[in-house]
Design goal:
Layout: E1 2-6, H1 35-44, E2 52-57, H2 61-67, E3 76-79, H3 84-93, E4 105-109, E5 113-114, H4 117-133, E6 138-143, E7 153-163, E8 168-177, H5 181-189, E9 193-202, H6 204-214, H7 216-227, H8 234-241, H9 250-253, E10 261-266, E11 270-271, H10 276-283, E12 290-292, E13 295-298, E14 301-307, E15 313-316, E16 319-325, E17 330-334, H11 341-350
Parallel strand pairs: 1-2, 1-4, 2-3, 6-10, 12-14, 13-15, 14-16
Antiparallel strand pairs: 4-9, 5-11, 6-9, 7-8, 7-9, 8-10, 16-17
Helix pairs in contact: 3-6, 3-7, 6-7
Length: 357
Amino acid sequence: MKILILAGGKGTRLWPVSRNFKPKQFQKFFGSETLFQATFKRATKLAEIRDIFVSTNQIFLKEIKFQTPQLQRKNIILEPAFRERVAAFLLFFCYLSSKELEEPVVIFPSDHLIRKEKEFLLAIREGYQFVKENKNYILLFGERPKSPDTGLGYIKKGKLIKKSKNFSIFEVEVFKEKPDLRKAKKFLKSKNFLWNTGIFIFVPKLIEKLAEKYVFDNWRIYQILRENFQKKNFKKVVEKEYQKMDPASFDYSILENYSRNALVTVNWGWSDIGSWSSLKECLAGRDKNYIKGNFLGINSKDILAFGDTSQLVAACGVKNLIVVVTEDVVFICPKDNSQDVKKIVEKIEKDGKKELL
């Protein structure tokens, strides 16, 4: 089994802890491991380390090597530019032999929380076997929604394809990316809509064909990259050609145009940790509070206070609040507005204050 871990994201919705030089996948939100380290450890329970690859931006090479010293350098795929998943997948395919292109690969984002590891590993193994026997399918995994999250993609399950002892596999009827709150609440009540976990199993040869059909410019550049893979100038070719690829979304450009998508319904205790509110839901206790750092609250409830300094944060009579403190930034917002942190990041970029990013 070949596994690709995607670790090149910017994680702007968890600013100001997630920064350009060290985004959320390399941060410790749960215990002593970073999200990336936890993902890598899960992958080692499914495959040999030599069969695990990491796709990341070249600026994170030092961090990857520091956090996973057991990973060989040749298995770290460096992207010279941020170009979304289609480009990342095609660059990964260059590292596979012609024979390996015919076998399923597993794709893991590096910044997710999975509480029920035993169920997760079982689902991946059974899903891998399904794709091995049905190579014309792209397999996705859908988690039952726990809240009306507007920052996630949703999948509507269709007809039953296969029912095994542990899991049911369905056709994918429709994708709904980041709905508004009204629709998200409707999806929550429905039994047919699931969160898209962003974990995939597919045969690279199939994605090659779909990229040629739906993202031709990227496929054309991929041909150049693959032809030069074993040559001494491969690094220079990647630096020159990769940035020419379209930043095409895998979901929009391929999944939504392809009719043979399959879905495994799962209950992993999954979260993509895509915002401060989703992090709070994962960490909060019965009192709905989660406190990390030096915080004093009087008559305050439903609070996430996340600090990485010794500075005291004190609050009286507040509720439904996100408070994040770093050495150079204090970020405060209502819990329901945590997705809007991207607007702050955009404003900081516009104002040219790169030191805050």
